[in-house]
Amino acid sequence: MSYLYVSEQGASIGISENRFQVKYKDGLIKSVPAEPMEVISVFGKVQITTQCMEECLKRGVDILFYSINGAYYGRLISTSHVNVQRQRKQAEIGKNEDFKLTFSKKIIDAKIRNQIVILRRYARNKNVEIERSVIEMQNMYKKLLIAESVEQIMGYEGTAAKIYFRTLGALIEPEFKFSGRSRRPPMDPFNSMISLGYSIMMNELYGKIEAKGLNPYFGLMHKDREKHPTLASDLIEEWRAVLIDSTALSMLNGHELLVDDFYSGIEQPGVFLEKEGFKKYIQKLEGKFRAESKYLSYVDYSVSFRRALDLQIGQLVKAIETENANEYRPILIR
């Protein structure tokens, strides 16, 4: 499948002869086949023709709208994916406390273990002692075994996350000083990158959840919030460190991005990627989604991370339909 990202301000997207065409202000035209297209993401002031939107609705191509800095606005989607019976089953399973408890333990256990792997990977080339942090995080996932409520589980997750981000601060190159998680707005380059990455990934999961006939707003672990796709929030947890944090760390520590690739907002506070840095990051992230691995325990062949996202949601569908949370097996990296 194909994904199209358009962030050039003033560009326009149309369709002609079974190809999506992106026209830039300088007259340059980029043309890509329509057949494999799955998602078009636009950032900022990008125009889309009515004919293009109609074709996307017919083909089931989602169009995602973001601000120039990556804040999510909304999406254009068709209704061909709706599966009423599956959503009724999903709504019922949301009342099953045992299912939600087991599912939440699996997700958060995987999240903490994957965070530990990332810390160890990036500590190898640094003269930084992380074992105390690792032990503290291991204590958190061990406590999951005796947790009696989802609220307890989220408490352990929150403690582990604080330790994780505190330790990451010593592993990121000094010029990109990082002293902890800041969201709205992001106050340093690393936060800027992961906030954008989480937003992109959240909305990719949203589309994949809908494509499987589930409702993105019927969550199992996080508390429901108005206008928030809670199920996507649940499913992103095991992937944050695996895909987004690792990509940001790789680019900063590998000097693929420089301090000059970021700017501080004037009209709005925060730190954001400059135009070229933004493009580099999107390209790197897309490359990560396409990279193949054998991390899924239930398949014995390599799949791209994007395909793995699909397979994981398929596992959740199976778990919901059988009312057995143990059918869901999160990704664990090594």
From TrEMBL:
Keywords noted in UniProt: Antiviral defense, DNA-binding, Endonuclease, Hydrolase, Magnesium, Manganese, Metal-binding, Nuclease
Please give the Gene Ontology molecular function terms for this protein.
Answer: DNA binding; endonuclease activity; hydrolase activity; metal ion binding
Enzyme class, UniProt record, top EC level: hydrolase
Under Pfam families, the record lists: Cas_Cas1
> What biological processes does GO assign it?
defense response to virus; maintenance of CRISPR repeat elements
InterPro entries xrefs? Cas1, CRISPR-assoc_Cas1, CRISPR-assoc_Cas1_C, CRISPR-assoc_Cas1_N
Which cofactor names does the annotation list? Mg(2+); Mn(2+)
Q: Which Gene3D superfamilies match?
A: CRISPR-associated endonuclease Cas1, C-terminal domain (1.20.120.920), CRISPR-associated endonuclease Cas1, N-terminal domain (3.100.10.20)
Binding positions for Mn(2+) per the UniProt entry: 157, 222, 237
Q: Give the EC number(s) under which this enzyme is classified.
A: 3.1.-.-
Summary of the function given for this chain in its UniProt record? CRISPR (clustered regularly interspaced short palindromic repeat), is an adaptive immune system that provides protection against mobile genetic elements (viruses, transposable elements and conjugative plasmids). CRISPR clusters contain spacers, sequences complementary to antecedent mobile elements, and target invading nucleic acids. CRISPR clusters are transcribed and processed into CRISPR RNA (crRNA). Acts as a dsDNA endonuclease. Involved in the integration of spacer DNA into the CRISPR cassette.
| Complex formation | Homodimer, forms a heterotetramer with a Cas2 homodimer.
PANTHER family the record matches: CRISPR-ASSOCIATED ENDONUCLEASE CAS1 1
HAMAP family in alphabetical order: Cas1
Query: Family, per the entry?
Result: Belongs to the CRISPR-associated endonuclease Cas1 family.
Protein name per UniProt? CRISPR-associated endonuclease Cas1
Q: Which gene encodes it?
A: cas1
